[in-house]
Amino acid sequence: MNRARPQLKSIPKKRKRRATTSEPTRDKLLDVAGRIFADRGYRATTIREICIKAGANIAAVNYHFGDKLGLYTEVVQQSARLAEFQAAQVVIDRNAPPEEILRALILARLRSLFQGDRPDWHFRIMAHELAQPTPALRRLVNKVGHPMFNRLLQLIGGMLGLPADDETTRLCAVSSMGQILVYVFASPLLASVWPELKMTPDQVERVADHIADFSLAYIQNFRAKHPSAKSGPSQNALRSQALTHLGSRAGSSRISQGSKQEPRVSQ
């Protein structure tokens, strides 16, 4: 005689409660981490040291950022936001003569780099990142650097009458941006050889004018020596090319994210 088995009620599993921390804790972690990463670099910094100085626990880092690389990536992206790349993007995409756009872009980048309320650790952390790159730099370059640089190549190539991928176009773009960056990353050297230099708002404008004049002088000289160079595309055409490029990159980025993972840096 078969006896019916009693139905056992399933006991619901207790869900682990995720640790809760306040937004001030997140901000404190970012601020402390930024300063320590700037002093020591990514590899020499430990999460334990950051948490002790921030008055937080390791669980707070895991909750807000996932791990050490996640925290570092957010610090680097925060520095990029303070550098106002979006303002430069607005300048380079506006409808104006290319010479005017280049001049405005140079001024916008210098102003953003020397705004008075930006802590100096933002410069130092980028210096570490350039010397010893991590996956955080690659993410930043893919998100901001490549689109901006490609748009600059199109702008300068149009003025030269050359393709965006021509070597001369690339040299001019790198030279223009390099003249800006030397005032940031070579500032200790400049302070020694030119102690009178103070990057006040007025001085920033004078430096920007010089860089623009210097860069445009070569471009104009090149066009004078190569009158057969093709006329550059219109600003509308350049903008259309930039939007098409960004759209294709966004699509390929979504595909690549699904097929491979970002290499990790050991904590």
Keywords:
Tetracycline Repressor, domain 2, Arc Repressor Mutant, subunit A, 2 domains, 267 residues, mainly alpha, single chain
Radius of gyration: 25 Å
SSE string, helices as H and strands as E: HHHHHHHHHHHH
Low-confidence stretches: 5-21, 248-267
Shape: elongated
- Structural class label: mainly alpha
Average pLDDT over all residues: 82
Q: Gap between N and C termini, in Å? A: 64 Å
Q: Roughly how much helix do the residues carry, as a percent range?
A: 55-70%
Q: Per DSSP, what share of the residues sits in E-state strands of 2 or more residues?
A: under 5%
Q: What is the count of DSSP helices, taking H or I runs of 4+ residues?
A: 12
Give a description of the structure.
This protein has 267 residues and is mainly α. It folds into two domains: 23-78, Arc Repressor Mutant, subunit A (Orthogonal Bundle); 84-118 and 135-255, Orthogonal Bundle (Tetracycline Repressor, domain 2). It is 70% helix and 0% strand. The chain contains twelve helices and no strands. Helix 1 packs across helix 2, helix 6 packs antiparallel against helix 8 and helix 8 packs antiparallel against helix 12 (235-259). The protein is elongated. The termini are far apart. Mean pLDDT is 82; it is low at 5-21 and 248-267.
